[in-house]
């Protein structure tokens, strides 16, 4: 069946089987930043943002269910060639090693910061608890989210404290 998905602001027409998972449709649309991990919703590497406000593990949703919704992937985070503050913070704080979990972590952290712009360390850890990382030990991921929270609270054009 033919569906139209709005991904990162662009409409993508895809021919899919009704049982095609959203993660596969996104990757078939040429956006490979959304990773495939466990295929059982345990790891969170396939996390995307639905309608700008909900983190969704795209391996738990059929592509046909996403028609009519706005999907944001990691590729949609950077704007105008500039990294999103979360992407920059992950870089600055060494919040990644192999990078496989990073897109899902960033997407989940993005939704967390929309709902709670100044989370505690405990709230960050809870907010990211659906995303697994096998490399970092999470400490630098938490620091990255804390840095991004500070960056996002600054007025546009203000310099960040070092």
TrEMBL record:
CDD domains: fer2 (cd00207). It holds the Pfam family Fer2. This is Carbon monoxide dehydrogenase. GO terms for molecular function: 2 iron, 2 sulfur cluster binding; metal ion binding; oxidoreductase activity. Keywords: 2Fe-2S, Iron, Iron-sulfur, Metal-binding, Oxidoreductase. It comes from the Bacteria. Residues 1-77 form the 2Fe-2S ferredoxin-type domain.
């Amino acid at each position: 069946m033919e569906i139209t998905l709005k991904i990162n602001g662009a409409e993508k027409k895809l021919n899919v089987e009704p049982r095609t998972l959203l993660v596969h449709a996104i990757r078939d649309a040429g956006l490979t930043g959304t990773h495939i991990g466990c295929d059982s919703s345990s790891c969170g590497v396939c996390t995307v943002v639905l309608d700008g406000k909900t983190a969704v593990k795209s391996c738990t949703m059929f592509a046909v269910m996403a028609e009519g919704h706005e999907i944001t992937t990691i590729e949609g985070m950077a704007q105008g060639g500039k990294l999103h503050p979360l992407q920059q913070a992950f870089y600055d704080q060494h919040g990644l090693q192999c990078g496989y979990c990073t897109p899902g972590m960033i997407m989940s952290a993005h939704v967390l910061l929309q709902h709670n712009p100044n989370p505690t360390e405990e709230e960050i850890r809870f907010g990211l608890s659906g995303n697994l990382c096998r490399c970092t030990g999470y400490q630098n991921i938490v620091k990255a989210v804390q840095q991004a929270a500070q960056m996002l609270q600054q007025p546009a054009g203000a310099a960040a404290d070092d």
